[in-house]
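lol forgot to send this yesterday, sorry. struct tokens for the thing we talked abt
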């Protein structure tokens, strides 16, 4: 599944029988990077305080990848820390994410991973979730955490877990390259 001349995504089976997404990126002259969009996020992220996922890098980590929430007016995001060769859980708090332009937490379109000017990488991702709880949006103790059609009593919103083919079909239309 070719994203652009330099990126691919694959559905890979894990040793435990589960599945993950593998994002392979190899820069090409004239391209600055690439991206993957995850459209299965709630419209409002006010009820969430962090995005959590599992990741590992196949080979050396030479990437610069930003994790972003995009709205029509802008985005907030954080760089992904260096990822090692063994599975680890990463958690990025929304309050600590830097913004660009007028990000609207009530009009989120998608979660996006963006890679920039890297020397190439193979990144495997799994269990991408939004964690409910007090966030950086000025909510008070009395405000409700129910901001989605998923059960508001569950501790997270599952963005993608890659077990099965359906998440991969959604991703096939949500990827591209930065020229």
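and heres what i got for the seq, position by position
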């Amino acid at each position: 599944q070719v994203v652009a001349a330099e990126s691919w995504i694959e559905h890979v089976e894990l040793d435990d029988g589960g599945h993950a997404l593998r994002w392979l990126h190899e820069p090409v002259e004239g391209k600055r990077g690439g991206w993957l969009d995850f459209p299965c996020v709630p419209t409002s992220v006010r009820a969430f305080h962090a995005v959590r996922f599992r990741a590992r890098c196949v080979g050396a980590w030479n990437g610069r990848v930003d994790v972003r929430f995009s709205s029509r007016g802008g985005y907030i995001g954080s760089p992904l820390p260096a990822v090692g060769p063994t599975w680890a859980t990463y958690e990025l708090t929304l309050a600590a994410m830097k913004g660009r332009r007028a990000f609207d937490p009530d009009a989120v379109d998608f979660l996006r991973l963006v890679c920039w000017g890297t020397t190439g990488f193979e990144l495997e991702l799994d269990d991408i979730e939004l964690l409910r709880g007090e966030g950086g949006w000025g909510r008070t103790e009395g405000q409700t955490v129910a901001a989605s059609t998923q059960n508001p009593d569950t501790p997270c919103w599952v963005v993608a877990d890659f077990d099965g083919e359906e998440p991969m079909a959604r991703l096939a239309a949500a990827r591209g390259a930065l020229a």
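Residues 63 and 118 are 5 Å apart (CA to CA). anyway ping me if u want another try
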